[in-house]
Design a protein that fits this description.
This is Tetratricopeptide repeat protein. The chain is built from ten helices and no strands. The protein has helices at 2-20, 23-36, 42-58, 64-79, 84-101, 106-122, 124-145, 150-167, 172-189, 203-211. Helix 8 (150-167) packs parallel to helix 10 (203-211).
Length: 214
């Protein structure tokens, strides 16, 4: 029985690896990631989001398409004059789908917290007390899952800075985390190749936090 379970587990790992390494999948993801860099309007954002969702439909064991679709929904809420709550709620649903495919994933967990940050920003007085601890918990979990994840550390630093500004305390903790995240981005950049499709965003946020520390 144990041998059967081990064989099944290894088979599932191989299937996931084979799909993620599939040239057609990588090419499709790269095409959407390139398109993501050119987004200037909400309509363009929707088009690229829908492209990721089509990949998700064709790649049922891959979390990245849902992840990027959720990220785009989140960024759209920050960038465009739309129903921001609706866009963020849709992002949360997409994150849930990604999490079902890859539970315990640091990137997905950090993005979940980022979406909650967006929700808080729309109504700080009404949502801050309940949602801020949830977001902090998610960022802490994301860091515990992968201490080399610069986005998890960056978002925690951003949250810490906001809390420091709100309560009138010093930014030392936030600044220390932001500087640490910049070091992690440098390490990450050394790994990036032409076929790299894992998340790389967030360095600008870290730089914005550190700029407030001088």
């Amino acid at each position: 029985m144990k041998k059967y379970i081990l064989t099944l587990a290894l088979s599932l790992v191989w299937i996931a690896f084979a799909q993620a390494s599939d040239p057609a999948f990588i090419a499709a993801m790269q095409k959407q990631l390139d398109a993501k860099k050119t987004i200037a309007t909400y309509e363009q954002s929707q088009t690229v989001t829908n492209g990721f969702l089509r990949i998700a439909d064709a790649s049922e064991t891959e979390w990245l398409p849902y992840y990027y679709a959720a990220l785009l929904k989140t960024e759209a809420a920050f960038r465009f004059e739309i129903d921001k709550d609706k866009s963020l709620d849709e992002a949360l649903e997409l994150v849930k789908k990604a999490d079902k495919i890859a539970p315990g994933n640091s990137e997905i967990t950090a993005l979940n917290g980022y979406i909650l940050m967006g929700k808080i920003s729309l109504d700080p007085a009404g949502r801050g007390q309940t949602m801020s601890p949830q977001a902090m918990q998610l960022f802490g979990k994301a860091i515990d899952l992968d201490r080399e994840n610069p986005r998890a550390v960056t978002l925690m630093s951003q949250m810490e800075l906001g809390m420091a500004q709100f309560f009138g305390t010093g930014p030392e903790k936030a600044c220390g985390m932001a500087r640490m995240s910049l070091e992690l981005y440098t390490k990450e950049e050394a790994k990036i190749t032409d076929e790299y499709i894992l998340p790389t965003w967030g360095k600008t946020v870290a730089e914005q936090v550190t700029a407030k520390c001088d």
